Amino acid sequence: MQPSDFEASKNGQVIKTAKNYYAFVPADLPPGLALSWDLVNRNSKADRALSELAGITKTLPNPHLLIGPFIRREAVLSSKIEGTRASLSDLFFFEAGGESQEKGSDVSEVANYVRAMEYGLKRQEEMPMSLRLIREIHRELMLGVRGEFQTPGEFRRSQNWIGPPRCALVDATFVPPPVPEMMDCLGKLESFLHGESDLPLLIRLALIHYQFEAIHPFLDGNGRMGRLLMTFLLCSEQAIPGPVLYLSAFFEKYRQEYYHHLLQVSLAGAWQPWIQYFLKAVEAQSLEAIQRAHRLLEIQTKYRRQVQKARTSALVPRLIDLLLSSPAISAPFLARHFKITQRAAQANIDKLIAMGILREVTGKSRNRMYVAEEILFALEGNHWDK
Question: What pLDDT, on the 0 to 100 scale, is given for residue 104?
Answer without folding.
Answer: 52
